[in-house]
Each structure stands twice: as structure tokens, then as C-alpha cells.
Amino acid sequence: MNKSINLKKRPVGTPTLSDFEFVESDVNPSISDGQLLLEAKYISVDPYLRGRMSDAKSYVPPFKLDEPISSGVVAEVIETKNDKFKKGDFVSGLLQWKEKQISTGEGLQKIDKSKAPLSAYLGIVGMTGLTAFLGLHEIGKPKKGETLVVSGAAGAVGSVVGQIGKILGLNVIGIAGTDEKIDMLKSEFGFDHGINYKTTKDMKAAIKEAAPNGVDIYFDNVGGPISDAVLFNINQFARIIICGAISVYNKTEIPMAVAVQPFLVKNSALMQGFIVSNYADKFPVAMKQLATWLGEGKLKYKETVVEGFENTPQAFLDMMDGKNKGKMIVKV
Amino acid sequence: MNKSINLKKRPVGTPTLSDFEFVESDVNPSISDGQLLLEAKYISVDPYLRGRMSDAKSYVPPFKLDEPISSGVVAEVIETKNDKFKKGDFVSGLLQWKEKQISTGEGLQKIDKSKAPLSAYLGIVGMTGLTAFLGLHEIGKPKKGETLVVSGAAGAVGSVVGQIGKILGLNVIGIAGTDEKIDMLKSEFGFDHGINYKTTKDMKAAIKEAAPNGVDIYFDNVGGPISDAVLFNINQFARIIICGAISVYNKTEIPMAVAVQPFLVKNSALMQGFIVSNYADKFPVAMKQLATWLGEGKLKYKETVVEGFENTPQAFLDMMDGKNKGKMIVKV
């Protein structure tokens, strides 16, 4: 049977396995002219999916109840009645959590297995890399010698942001939640400093110590008290990229924080929400640069690969809980 | 005797008269070659001065204790040994709170009494107008038909922001603290809607009612709960100009607020601190436009003029307490 994973109910607070439901259907749906039959190979689980599970107003519409969840997926074309794709092609795109599914090919990108491993097209040369590259460049506008702080630094996006920061000649400080992650940031990804927010009592002071000249760019993946502590250390004309707020996604009450307005006005600083899809016109240039750096060995990436389609919901929960290192991916 | 007003001690929380001290000195200081002797005519009291009275890190250095406070002042040249200025010239610039003072002329602008009243050079065709015009244009990037919310709308900057918004074809909503101010916003300054935050129980709902299509631009002079309420109503790609945070300037504890990060990321919105002095290269163009609009009768302005140099500290306290309508000015 062909399995799919539906959203059964909207999570309240932290999602649980009971919010998901496995549904079975025909093994081989039949395709019409212009269509493709795809078999999922790799599925990406990402923090932003939590937002789509709620029905609050957001930049992407909420998932519908009792319908399959969708996210970034790498799939193989196993049948085709569309001239643009042939059997055996690999594609990536926003697809459903289904073992097999029909597509018109719209919005899918053919990907080249020989240039990078298939799973990398969900990460370093896919949305993850693009988010890091474009967020840092378009809002952060980095200049050599400046200081960059990255929260969620051991996550998929964060680890790439820090590496690009080093390529551009920045002083890079990563914030993460275990000593093992901090070691990895410094030894594998070349970060200058790492701060374990779970064992550090005074984050404000720790950031000041790592950034004695102040913080020029803050790439924020988490929000919450970590971001409050960074605020106290920003410089004149600081740029803060709000890429995510994973610390509050599961909150059921409206989260409070240190008021940012006095810091922004005192420092003529900028804070901007970043959604990679708004920068689609810049994808080709950015992907080329990322592929070049990857080929030159200047960019490394981590994946946490979970095996088995049936483990996709658990992989999502683990990712929300910070159990991944780098990009969390399900190998179908 | 020639009087000056010194900062005697740094205010804790709300400033009081005892934080200021009157000091007397020689009636006519003697001037050297290249210098001018100035007599103050009008003194501007502004919210940002509160920040300079503290010794916290800010965009302008703190005032020194036991030295005169300085702010925008219009003065007359009563003696000159500087070829660029003649006796009887009027100038505006950042000057000390002194009845008479010596200047080298540096940083002073000659002003033309025939084009606008002297006091207007501290307001509508001075820093106030420039702050409104440049904040709205440089960060707000207004487009005809968009919705603009202004807090502190009956204040000096706010009332100009709203009027420029109307000239540019925006739907303009002003927030202020008395019904009298709300009436003035609508009847005199042409705002489309006014909200009295002191008598409105549900600010979030009131803003939604006045802005059924959501808020595209928020010109924020106040911070605090008013700004929290606006956040819930922002649109995709909203721009928030943080021009001031008068609601927190007197706070002694770090103020908390609704966390802005989730709103910014959901809406790809931007929030930026605005300090007019960073845009000095745009002053000539902006002043020309403001003067043109003023001449055409498209811009009106309000002043609250307090008479007497000795009332300057009280005028500052009253302005911090919202007792002014429009620009608060002391006539020396």
C-alpha cells in the first residue's frame, strides 16, 4: 500500500505523535498526460512546519486537517507522461508526505546527483543554504571585520551562516545548547567562539566577552531570552535577521520579551523578518556560490538522517526538541 | 546677570525640577576673533533629551553634570567678530540653555524670518519636520493607498507624519491620549481616524477597526503597550519606524513587551531605529519640500509656547507628561 502522513489535529503547544495520522491508499495511482509519478527519497523536516500546523495567520497558509503534510522532498520520477522529465530523473520541491505521489512537474527542480548527494538538495545547496546565504547578505549586509552572532548555531541554517561568516572574514560567535555542539561549531565549522546557553548563567556577559567590540549582525533563529541577551550588546547600525523563533513556536500564550524598541532607536539598528521565498530572484546566483564553496571544501554540512518514512513525525518532533545536528532529514 | 540651566543630577525615573540648577555668570562675555555672541530667542524641549540626562550608552553622549544642557535653539547674533555672520542675523543650531552664549558659528544655520516664523525653525522646517519627513520616507517607503499608524500623533513629530501621510495618499490613523487631541488630529490635521489609548479598552481591536486592511507602516514614537497592539495588525512587508520610545524613557527597570520576533518573521516585516542626524545628506531636499508644502498651506503645525527662560525645565517636564500639543517651545 502507498502510505501518506496527514495532519490529524492542530497541536496545542508541543506537538505529539497523536497529531499525525498514517493513511493508506492505492499502491500505484495512474497518471494522465502531462503528469509524473514520483517516489519520495528524502524528506526535510523544518521548524517552520510548526507554524503551518496552527491555523494562525502566517506567510504560508496552514496545513489542512486530514490532508497530507508537505515540505521539501527529493523524489525520483518513476513514471512520466510529461516531456520535460524522464524516468529516473531526480527532482526536489515542495511535495507531500507520501511514499508515491502524482505531480504536474510545476515548481519542481531537476537535480544532479553527480554534483552533490541527493540529500544535500534539501540542505546546503537547497533551502537551508539559500536561507543562510540570502538572509546574511540581503539583511545582514556583512562587512569584513564585523562581529556576527548566530543563535541556533548548530542547526541546519545556523551552521551554514557561521561558515559563510568566516568565509567573509567576520568574527563569528555561535550559540547552542550542548557542549558537544559548541565543540563541533569550533572544531568542524570554524566558529571563533561558542556559547552554551544552557550552562551559561549570564548570557549578556558571555556575549560581551566573546564580542568585546559589540555585535554588528545577529542571525536569530530562536528568539526568547537568548535574543534578549544579544540586544544588550548590539552596536550602532546593527542588523538583526529574524529567521526563526523556534523558542516560541510551541508557546500557547503570547510570549513577552525585553522591549526591543529602545535598543533599536538608541543604536539606529534594524531588525527584519526573513523568509527565503521572498528572494527567489536571487536563488540562481546564491546556489552557484554555495555549490562553488562546497566544491572548494570551504563549506561543510551536517545531516542527521533518520531512516524510514514511518519515522517522519518523530523526526519532526526530535528536530523541534534540538536533537538534530545540522539538517534533519528522513531517508524514505 | 546671564543665566544658564545646568544638569544638577541625573534623573532616576521621572525627572523633577530638582534635577536642574540655575547658574548665573557675567552679563556680557567678551568675544574673540571669529566668534559670535548669541542671545537665545526660542528653545526646543524634546523627548530625546531625557536619554542624554542618563549616562547610559546612546547615540548621543550624555550631558555632563554641572554643565548647561543643550538642545535646538534659535538665537540672534548680538555681537560678531566673524565675517560670515552680521549683527541681527538669526541662527538655529544645537546650543546651550543660556540666555547669552559665545559660538564660533560652527554647525549654525542662518535662518530667514520672512519665510517662516522663527520658532518654526525648531519645528516644522527644522528637526521636527525633517524627522517626520525622512523617517517616513527612508524607512517607511510609503506607497499611495497604504495604511499608516502614528503613535504620539498629537506630538510635534507625529502630527507632521500624519499630514505628510495624507499628502501622499495614505489611510492615516493617529493614536493620542485625550479626546481633545483626537479631535484636533481629525479636524485640523486631516487624519482619517484617531484612537484615544487612555479610554480605549481593546487597542488591538480598535486598530483593526480603523485599519481593516491591516497596517503597512507604523511610525512609532512611544513604544510600550500601544506598540504591542499595533504589532497584531501589521501586514506582510510592514515597515515600523522606531523614532522614539517615550513610554519607557522614565522606566528604571528593563521594560518588557510582546516579543516582536514572531510577528516580524511571519510578516517579513521590518523594524528600524531612526535618528534624523544619520540622514544629514538628505536635509536640503527634505527642507525644500517641507517649506513648499508649508507655503502651499498643505502642512499645518501646532506649537505650545511657554514664555520665559526660567520655565524651560518645567516645559521639558510638561512635554514628557504629554501636556503639549504639537512642538513644545520656550520663548526666552
The helix tally of chain A amounts to 9
**Total tally of structural domains of chain A:** 2
In CATH, what is the class of the largest domain in chain A?
Alpha Beta
Give the biggest sheet of chain A.
7 strands, mixed
SS strand fraction of chain A: 25-35%
Low-pLDDT ranges of chain A: none
Within CATH, the superfamily of the largest domain in chain A carries the name Medium-chain alcohol dehydrogenases, catalytic domain
Largest interface: A-B, 38 and 38 residues
**Within the CATH hierarchy, at the fold level, what is the topology of the largest domain in chain A?**
Quinone Oxidoreductase, Chain A, domain 1
Principal-axes shape call of chain A: globular
Strand and helix layout:
The structure is a homodimer of 332-residue chains.
Chain A (H helix, E strand, L loop, with lengths): L1 E6 L12 E6 L10 E9 L3 H6 L16 E11 L9 E7 L3 E4 L5 E2 L16 H14 L6 E5 L4 H12 L3 E6 L2 H9 L5 E4 L6 H8 L4 E6 L3 H8 L2 E9 L13 E3 L2 H7 L2 E4 L9 H13 L7 E5 L4 H9 L6 E5 L1
Parallel strand pairs in A: 8-9, 8-11, 9-10, 11-12, 12-14, 15-16
Antiparallel strand pairs in A: 1-2, 3-4, 3-6, 3-16, 4-5, 5-7
